UniProtKB/TrEMBL annotation:
PROSITE patterns: HTH_ASNC_1, HTH_ASNC_2. It comes from the Bacteria. It comes from Alloyangia mangrovi. InterPro entries: ArsR-like_HTH, AsnC-type_HTH_dom, Dimeric_a/b-barrel, Tscrpt_reg_AsnC-like, Tscrpt_reg_AsnC/Lrp_C, Tscrpt_reg_HTH_AsnC-type_CS, WH-like_DNA-bd_sf, WH_DNA-bd_sf. CDD domains: HTH_ARSR. This is Lrp/AsnC family transcriptional regulator. Residues 2-65 form the HTH asnC-type domain. Signal peptide: none annotated. The keyword Transcription applies. Keywords: DNA-binding, Transcription, Transcription regulation. SMART domains: HTH_ASNC.
Length: 153
């Protein structure tokens, strides 16, 4: 169970994983050593999946986000494995969610333009049979966050 200090540490590190321990300690009202121990304990308990740099899509020329709603008529383990393998081989596919309901999978694809998206789409359907695909192009990103809510921990 997380206490208030742990939640504050996680909140700060979600915003900036490079924040020095001394700054975190000062921000939350602890001295450096106990703060460092808490961070280590949180790491050991698996609260951090990994520490990454969030890159700028526009600067990397992948500013177009496309959401692919995929329906399949095959729900076998073999098809699912082939689908996962196929998507892992396409770096433009950055998020994949298996859903309950009418849509089986939702993918987010980042590309520079529609023509590149079409090439990604063609690569995917060559690797795995898909019953139905509906693609939606994001016009504007209103909110995008990697910060998780901590009130439920």
């Amino acid at each position: 169970m997380l206490d208030l200090y742990d939640r504050k540490i996680l909140a700060l590190l979600q915003r900036n994983a490079e924040m020095p321990v001394a700054e975190i300690a000062a921000e939350i009202g602890l001295t450096t050593t106990p703060c460092w121990r808490r961070i280590r304990k949180l790491e050991e308990r698996g609260y951090f999946k990994r520490r990454v740099a969030l890159l700028d899509e526009e600067k990397l020329n992948v500013g177009v986000s496309v959401f692919m709603a995929i329906r399949t008529n095959q729900h076998s383990r073999a098809w699912s494995s082939a689908f996962v393998k196929a998507t892992e081989e396409i770096p433009e596919i950055v998020d994949i969610f298996r859903l309950a309901g009418e849509i089986d999978y939702m993918l987010r694809v980042v590309v520079p333009d529609i023509a590149t998206f079409d090439r990604v789409y063609q690569r995917l359907i060559q690797k795995v049979e898909i019953h139905d695909v509906s693609s939606m192009f994001a016009m504007e990103t209103i909110k995008s966050s990697t910060e998780l809510p901590l009130d439920y921990a």
